[in-house]
Amino acid sequence: MAFTVNILYTGADGSARKFAEEMRASGLVDRVRAEKGNLRYEYFFPMDDPEAVLLIDAWEDEEALNSHHKSPMMKEIAALREKYRLRMRVQKFTEV
User: Fold this and answer.
1) N or C: which end of the chain has fewer CB within 10 A?
2) pLDDT digit string, tens, across residues 27-42
3) Strand intervals (E) in 14-94
4) Low-confidence ranges of the chain (pLDDT < 50)
């Protein structure tokens, strides 16, 4: 069953936007989008919070997301989150 995960990244001094920019510039965004089962992987910038970035991440099923979480690129993503000292708030929505 397909589902969407919204991740709100927050930081300080523009770090969340810098994280999203580095994700794109490094090719990590394209690599996630190319993974089997990924339906959507897009960053958005909330108008009312310059210190936040929203990631909308959709997957065909849990198996696809689990494979993504076990992939070597997750270490790269986690390292970038740590580099930019980001906090995360995660919401999951299942299609009905």
Assistant:
1) C
2) 999 999 999 999 999 9
3) 38-44, 52-59, 87-94
4) none
Distance from first CA to last CA of the chain, Å, rounded?
Answer: 9
Q: Looking at residue 53, what is its pLDDT?
A: 98
8-state DSSP, 13: T
CB atoms within 10 A of CB 58: 19
Written as six digits, the tokens of 16 are 């969340």
Q: Does residue 16 contact residue 9 with C-beta atoms inside 8 Å?
A: yes
CATH number of 3-94: 3.30.70.100
Question: What ranges do the domains of the chain cover?
Answer: 3-94
Nearest of 7, 1, 10, 12 to residue 32 by alpha carbon? 7
